[in-house]
Structure formats: structure tokens, C-alpha cells
Amino acid sequence: MTVLIVGGSGFLGAELVRQAAVAGHPTAATYATRRPRSIPGVQWHALDLRDPARVEAVMAEVRPRVVINASSGMADWAVTAEGPVRLAMAAAKSGSRLVHVSSDAVFSGTRVHYDESCLPDPLTPYGAAKAAAETGILLVQPDAVVARTSLIIGDGRSVHERTVRELATGARAGVLFTDDVRCPVHVTDLATALIELASGESNGIHHLGGSDALSRHELGMLIARRDGLDGSRLPAGLRADSTLPGPLDVRLDSRATQRRLRTTLRGGHQFLMPTP
């Protein structure tokens, strides 16, 4: 199957590109500003999701069987909310299967545990944009997959891991919150699960979080242990005492999706074990 990875230059997108190419799928990927380095067998296309004509042009040129949208526009409504709906419209027109990566930011944390039946109730502009994209995509293309995930970790390359290293070495100021809880997932597991969903016949909402609920501070301690850093140097604090908006405790219940997958979504205690 021909696969188009939208947002292929990002952290998750790059892993999706790598896995799709290794699996032998004809692969195309997009970038927003800077073209990534060449990868054998991968065609790169510049794409601004705010530009409907460009979305149509890339889809027409690639003619993908599957589109995986791993793009990230943060709180930019035109990119994060409207862009994926444009992509869904183009995918529906071309008969392409769409897998859209969403976020646990669509939830407020009021009920703590969230399975796929829970309705979004976001607290932040980013969460609202993600929730709007989910609604629009499933209206345009009801057989699409919307995959919500959590903090993405990956062998030292994620923003969370860089933050821990900088805090532990004194390169930056700040704290890791002990009351801000998520279900971190390894980028390799997440990408594998997304490709598995793309290759199957599932549709609708799926949760792809790791099996362990961890606070930002607990996650930081596990990263520090794996990397041989002094965890006692990681400052702790309460998000509830800060001015940062957003939910506190959001735990994706991914058990229903996990039962359908061959891919195991490991928890942080497992994938952050120190290498012997």
C-alpha cells in the first residue's frame, strides 16, 4: 500500500516514515518548512495544511492508499483544527484511508480515566483545536481512524527527555509536576500501532496510551535513571500551584484498543528500564 505521512518531519512522523519504508510500503511524507534529509525510497512534499489547493495537489500526486496525519500545529486553529478536516475531505475524495493522530488534551481531567466512549471536554485552545478536528474528520469520513495518544517518549529524542536532561544538569530552570499525570507511550510502539490500524479495517476513536499512569516527575525520574543522571536534582512542584492552564490527571484507558492490536503499548516502567 502507498502511504502518505503528513507531518513526516516531526518526532512521531519521522518514526512513521522509517517504519513504513522498512516495511517496504511505497512511502511519501510531508514537511511544513524545512525539507528533511533524504531517505531511500521516500518522496518528500512541502505541505501547508492551511492551503486547500496544496492539500489537493499532494494527494493527487501521491495517490496514497493510506494517509496518516501526525502533523502538529499546536494551538494554531487553522493548522490543528481546520487542516485535518481539509485533509479528510481530500482523502474521502480520493478514496484514501485516513488515520489521524489526536491527543489526550481533548479531556479536562475531571473524571481522570477516559476510554474511547468519553466525549471531549477540553480546557485549552490546543485541546479545543484537537477536539474540533476529531469531530470534523469523523463527519467528513466516518470510516477514518482517530487515534488519541499521550506523552510520546523515545530513546532520548523527545522534548520531555531533553527537558529532564537540562533540568538534571542545571542547564535550565523549572520543575516537574507531581500532580500532572499522563500515560506516556514509546514512539516506536505508537508508530507501529498506527501503521497496524492503518493496515486494518478499524474505524472511529482509538486510544493509544502506554499502560502506566505517571506524573511528570515520576516520568522524569525514570528517564534520569535510564540515562545515568542524578534524579535527586530534578525539582518537583505542583501544577495546581502554577498559572499554567490545562488538565491535571488524564489517564487514557487504552485496553479496548489494545485487545484489537498485535502491537503492545508498553508502560514507562518497561520502556524506560536501564539498558544492562
From TrEMBL:
Residues 1-237 form the RmlD-like substrate binding domain. It holds the Pfam family RmlD_sub_bind. This is NAD(P)-dependent oxidoreductase. It comes from Streptomyces galilaeus.
